[in-house]
Amino acid sequence: MATGKRFKAAVVGGSGYGGAEMIRRLLVHPDVELVRVASIDFVGEPLAAADPALEQVTDLVFEGIPPGEAAQGVDVVLLGLPHTVAASKLAEIAAASPTVKVVDMSGDFRLKDVASYERWYKHTHPCPERLKDFVYGLPELNREAIRKARFVASPGCFATTIELALLPLARAGLLEGVVHVQGITGSSGSGVAPSAGTHHPVRAGNLRTYKPLEHQHVPEITETLALAGARDLQLRFVPVSAPLVRGILATAFVELPEEWTPARLEALYRETYAGEPFVRVPRKRLPEVAAVSGSNHAEVGVAAGAPRNGRRTVTLFGATDNLVKGGAGQAIENMNLMLGLDEKASLADPGPWPP
Amino acid sequence: MATGKRFKAAVVGGSGYGGAEMIRRLLVHPDVELVRVASIDFVGEPLAAADPALEQVTDLVFEGIPPGEAAQGVDVVLLGLPHTVAASKLAEIAAASPTVKVVDMSGDFRLKDVASYERWYKHTHPCPERLKDFVYGLPELNREAIRKARFVASPGCFATTIELALLPLARAGLLEGVVHVQGITGSSGSGVAPSAGTHHPVRAGNLRTYKPLEHQHVPEITETLALAGARDLQLRFVPVSAPLVRGILATAFVELPEEWTPARLEALYRETYAGEPFVRVPRKRLPEVAAVSGSNHAEVGVAAGAPRNGRRTVTLFGATDNLVKGGAGQAIENMNLMLGLDEKASLADPGPWPP
Amino acid sequence: MATGKRFKAAVVGGSGYGGAEMIRRLLVHPDVELVRVASIDFVGEPLAAADPALEQVTDLVFEGIPPGEAAQGVDVVLLGLPHTVAASKLAEIAAASPTVKVVDMSGDFRLKDVASYERWYKHTHPCPERLKDFVYGLPELNREAIRKARFVASPGCFATTIELALLPLARAGLLEGVVHVQGITGSSGSGVAPSAGTHHPVRAGNLRTYKPLEHQHVPEITETLALAGARDLQLRFVPVSAPLVRGILATAFVELPEEWTPARLEALYRETYAGEPFVRVPRKRLPEVAAVSGSNHAEVGVAAGAPRNGRRTVTLFGATDNLVKGGAGQAIENMNLMLGLDEKASLADPGPWPP
Amino acid sequence: MATGKRFKAAVVGGSGYGGAEMIRRLLVHPDVELVRVASIDFVGEPLAAADPALEQVTDLVFEGIPPGEAAQGVDVVLLGLPHTVAASKLAEIAAASPTVKVVDMSGDFRLKDVASYERWYKHTHPCPERLKDFVYGLPELNREAIRKARFVASPGCFATTIELALLPLARAGLLEGVVHVQGITGSSGSGVAPSAGTHHPVRAGNLRTYKPLEHQHVPEITETLALAGARDLQLRFVPVSAPLVRGILATAFVELPEEWTPARLEALYRETYAGEPFVRVPRKRLPEVAAVSGSNHAEVGVAAGAPRNGRRTVTLFGATDNLVKGGAGQAIENMNLMLGLDEKASLADPGPWPP
C-alpha cells in the first residue's frame, strides 16, 4: 500500500458532492495520497456508500473521527463541511500540527468582513480570529499568495464563474456601480440531499429563479473584484435553476464607453487570461457549459452591442462545472499550489465529449 | 362527420410544432372544426406522420394544396408557415374570400416598420401592403382590436414572455432607455428539424447563449411596449438555450426610483392583470416554467432590491410555454376573439403536473 | 358558482400526482363538478399549493375533513390515498350514502385474493369484506361490469401497460407459463415525495433496476390476464427507472408456435383493439412513450422473429403515460363509465407534441 | 514538444464521439503520445472544432491525409471510422509499416464469419482476408491474445455490456438456447450526426424500441459467448433508446435449474471477475448506469426468482458507459495491452459523481 507519493491528504466531510469530486481527483493524483476520509455519515462503510463510482476502487472507509484526529500526520486537510461547521472545526484541525495546510470549500472564510458574513449567512461566525489568515483561493487573482498560504478559502461556484467573467473589466478599471448578472445553474449545486427543488419530476422540466438579488455569493464577488480594481461595485444577481446536472452559465450586463469596441474587449479578455492553465476565451464561439462540464476549465467571453449616445451595452459570459472549477477541482488546484506541485496535477483531463 | 360546430378552420403549414399544437387544440375545440391541413411535407399521409400523438385520433391527412385553395370555404386560416413564406402566401389566402380571417404565427406581419423587418429578418418583405391591416395578437394589449380584426399577427415566444413581464411598467410610464433582459428557452423553440443545437447528446447537458444582443424579437418587443407607454426603450436581450423541451423564463433588470417599493410594484402587477384569463401573478412564489408548461397561462412577477441613492434595482420575470401562450395557444386565443367565441375555448386545461 | 353540471365529485387524498391529474381532468369535465378535495396536507391552502399549474384556476382549497364527510352529497368519490390507507377509509365513505360511487387508485382492492395482497403489500388488509364488491377498472377487459359497478379499483401503471400489451395473447389462448417482461418507467411514478431515487443530479443520468422479479404489480397482472384466458401465467418482471418524467414502456418476450407469423399477430392485435377509444396499434411504427405522454391513450404493438424448430420469439410492447392511462386518467375513464357518461369526457385531448 | 513518451499513436477518423473519447484519453496518457488525427471533416481546424472540451488544450489539427500516411511513424493506429470504411482502409494502414498495430472501433473485424457480416451489415466485406488476423478485443475473455495481437477489433457497446453480463454463465456451461435480452441506451450511441431519433424535443421525454430482434450486435455476442462455452445460443435482443446521454443497462432473462440459488450465482459472478480491473459486481446493489458513467468500469449483477418445477428465472444485468468501456475506453485498454503497458493507463479515473 506504500504509494510512494510525496504528500498525504485527508478529506473531512467527504460524503457530499464536493467530497466525492475531491476524493476522485486525489485517487488519481500523482503526488498526493488520500489517507483518510472523515464523515459523520456512512461511518465504517466504504466510500462507495456515498459515491457508487468508487465501488471497489479504493479500500478506504468513512471514518467517524473528529476533524482534529483526521488531520494527524497529513500535509493537507480538505474540508467538505457545511457552512459554519467548517469554521467551528478549524481550530482543532489547525492544532493537529503547526504545519498542516487547509483548503476549505465552505463559505466560512471567504469574506474578510465578519459583519458581512453574519448578514448573509445569518449565523455568528464561529472562528473570526482566523479570517485574516485565509487567502481567497482564486488562482487567477491570488496565485502567489495561495502558494505561500497555510489556509485557503476556496471560492463558491457562482462566485468563481462571475468573478472570472468580470475580472478583466475590474483590472481595466471598467467595473463600477450597478451591474446586472444572471447565473443559471445545474442541480448538483444543491447538494446531495433530496429536496423539492431537486425532485426529478419537477426539476426536469423547470426553469425557476430563487433568492433574486439576495444570493450569499454576492458579497464574496464584490470583495474579490474590489481587490482587482472594481469601484463601488453593486452586483444585482439573479440565480436560476435549470434542468441539467453540472454547470453554471453566467451573463453580466454593463454599459461601457463606446471606445470599448468588440475587438478591443476581446483583446482585453485574451490578454488577461493568456497563459492561464484553466481559463480560456473560446476562439469562434461564446462560453458554453457542455465545453467545460467535467473539467477544471472555465470559459469566459464577451459580446458588445452597437454604440448609442457614446456608450454601448457589453455582455460578459462565464461557464464552469460548478463541482470542478466552481468547487472541488479548484480546491485541488489550490492544494497543488500550496504544496508546490504542478497546478494541473490530477486536473489535466479535458473532460468528456459529449458531457 | 357533421360535427355541428359553428365555424370551420384550415391550418396551412401544419407539419411543425406550432402546427401540431394548433391542430391539437382545434381537434378538441367546441365551436371550430378543423376541416383541412395543408403542407408541403407528408402529403397524403395522416397527421400522425408529423405528430405521433394524433395516431388514429383523426382521419385528416396532409394535403398538398396551395394556400389559397386551403382557404376555400373556411372561416379562418391559421398559418404555421416559416417567416417570409407566410407573407408570400397571404395575398392568395386573402383572395379566397372577402371574409376569411387569418392568424399568422410567423414574424412577417408583427413589425409595422418594413425597414426594421428587412434589417432583422434579412429579407425583402414579400407583402408590405398588408402590414397596416394586421393587428398584433397580444390580447392583454389589443383585445378589442383583435376582436374586430380580419388579420392578426400572433406574437413570438420570447416576445410574448418579455412583453407580459414588462407591460405593467410600460403602462405606468416606468419603462425608458436601456433595459437588460435574459431569456432562457427550451429546445422546442428551435422547431422540428434536427440540428447541432438540438442534438440530444449535447443539448441535454448544455447552457449556451446565442445571438446575444441580436435576436429578431427585439424590435417586436420594442414596438409593442412603445404602444403601451415605453419611451425610447433600448432592449438589450441575451437568449440562452437550456436542456428542457417546453418553456421560457425571462428576467429583466431595470433601475427605478426608490418609491417603487416591492409592495407597490406587486400591486401594480396584480392590478394590471386582474381579470386577465391567461396571465397571473403567483401569490407565494415567483414565475416558473413548470407551472405553465403545457398550458396557455403566463406567469409574471417582480422582485426589488434595497434602495440606494434614491433608486433600486427591480427585476421582472415572465414564464410561458413557448408553444402555447408563446405560440400556437395564443394563436387559438386570437382566433377565438376574432370569431366572437369564449377566449378560453379549448384552452382551459390548466396543464399537467408534473409537466 | 352553479355550474349546471349533472354530477358532483369529491377527491380524497388530492395532494399527490394522481390527485393533481384527477383534479385537472375534473376541472375541465363537461358533466362532473369537483366540489371538494380532502387532504391531510396543505389544509386550508389553495390547490395550487400542491399543483402550481392550478394557481388562480380554481377557488377550491384542501379541506382537512374525514373521508366520510368529504363523501357527503356527492355522486362519486375519487380516492388518491396511499395503499392500506384507502382500504381503511372505505367503510366510512361507503356509509356516507347508499349510492355514492368510489374509484380507488390504490392497490387495495385490485387483488381478489387477500393472502396475495398481504404477501405483496406486506400488510394486513384493512377491509377484506369489500373485495368482492370491487370491479377491476380496466375498461378494455371489464367495461360492462364497470358501468354497473359501485366500486372500482383502478389499475396500477405497470399493470395497465403490461396487461394491455398481453391481453390479445391471453384471449387467443397463447399466454401460458413463464413470460419475461421488462418495464421502464419515468420518475413521476415514484410520487411527490423527494427521495434518493428521484434526486435530479443522479436520476437525470441513470438507468437502474429495482425490485427485480418482486414488483407488487405482478399478482394484479396475473389475476387479470387469467380472467382473459391466460393459463398458469408466471410473469417474470423487471422494472427499470429511467430519466424521463412521464411514461412507461413495457416489453414482453414469449415463445409461440411458428404459425403465429408477424402478419397474423398484427391482425390479432388490431382486431382486439378495433373500436377501443384509448388503445391503438400504431400503423407504421412500434409503441413509444412520446406518442402517449400527457394523454389517456395507450399504444401496443408486436414484433416477431424468424421461426426455429417450430417456434419463434415474439415481443409485445406497451406504452402509456403512467399518470394518465396508467393512473388518474383511467380513474376518470372509470368514473365516466360508472356515471353513464361518454367514456372520453375530459380525456379527448390527444396530448402535446413534442411532449 | 518532445514529450518523452515511449510510444506514438495516430487516430484515424477522429471527429466522432468515439474519436473524441480516444483523443481525450491519449492526451492524458502517461506513455503514449497522440501525434496526429486524420479526418475528412474539419480539415485544418483545431480538434476543438469537433470537441469543444479540447479548446486550447492541444495544438493538434484535423489532417486531411490518407490513413496510410497517418500511420507513418507511429506504433499504433486507432480507427474511429464508420463500418465498411474501416475495413476498406486497413490494407493501406497495415502497409505503412510491418509493425504498426491497429485497434479498430468499427464492426468490420469483429465477426469471424464473412457471411454473417454481410447479412447483418448489408454490405460486401471490403477486406475479408484480414479477418483471421484480428483478435476480438474483450480483455476479460481474450487478454493474452490481445497482448500478442497486431490487430484488435474492439467490441460494440451493446455487445460489451451483454457479453460481460452473460460471460460467467457461458463459462459455467449454463448458457444454451433462447435467451431474452433488453438493452437500454443513451443518445450518444447514435453518434454525432443530428437525426430525428436524437432530436432533443422528442428524445428528452421518450422511450422507444428500434430494430427489435434485428440488431447487428447479435452475431457478435453469439460468436463471442460461444467461444466462452455457450451452446447454440439464440439471443433475442430488443434495444430501447432512453433520454440519457451516456450509458447502457442490459437485462437478460434465463431459466436455470433450481440448484442455481441466488447465493451460488452471486459467488459465480464474483469469482469470474475477481481480479478484473474494470468489471465489478456491486456489493449491496444491482448494476446502474450512474455508477459507471464517464469511467471504463462495467458493472454486472444477478437476481434470481423463487424455484418452480425444478427451475427458476434468473436475470443478469450489465451496465457500461457506451463511449468508454463500451467504446473508446476499451479501445485504449486494448492499446495498452498490445503495447505492454499498464492496462489501466489513462483509464484509472473512477468517473464523476454525480455523473
TrEMBL record, chains A, B, C, D:
What protein family does this chain belong to?
Belongs to the NAGSA dehydrogenase family. Type 1 subfamily.
The family database entries (Gene3D superfamilies) matched by this protein are listed as:
Dihydrodipicolinate Reductase, domain 2, NAD(P)-binding Rossmann-like Domain
Q: Which Pfam families match?
A: Semialdhyde_dh, Semialdhyde_dhC_1
Where is it localised? Cytoplasm
Q: What InterPro entries would the database entry show? A: AGPR, AGPR_AS, AGPR_dimerisation_dom, AGPR_type-1, NAD(P)-bd_dom_sf, Semialdehyde_DH_NAD-bd
| Name of the gene encoding the protein in the UniProt record | argC_1
Q: What is its main location?
A: cytoplasm
Q: Which UniProt keywords apply?
A: Amino-acid biosynthesis, Arginine biosynthesis, Cytoplasm, NADP, Oxidoreductase
Catalytic site = C157
Keyword field contains Plastid:
no
Q: Which parts of the sequence belong to the Semialdehyde dehydrogenase NAD-binding domain?
A: 8-149
EC main group: oxidoreductase
Provide the E.C. number(s) assigned to this enzyme: 1.2.1.38
Q: Which reaction does it catalyse?
A: N-acetyl-L-glutamate 5-semialdehyde + phosphate + NADP(+) = N-acetyl-L-glutamyl 5-phosphate + NADPH + H(+)
Record pathway: Amino-acid biosynthesis; L-arginine biosynthesis; N(2)-acetyl-L-ornithine from L-glutamate: step 3/4
Name by which UniProt lists this protein:
N-acetyl-gamma-glutamyl-phosphate reductase
PROSITE patterns attached to this UniProt entry = ARGC
Q: What does this protein do?
A: Catalyzes the NADPH-dependent reduction of N-acetyl-5-glutamyl phosphate to yield N-acetyl-L-glutamate 5-semialdehyde.
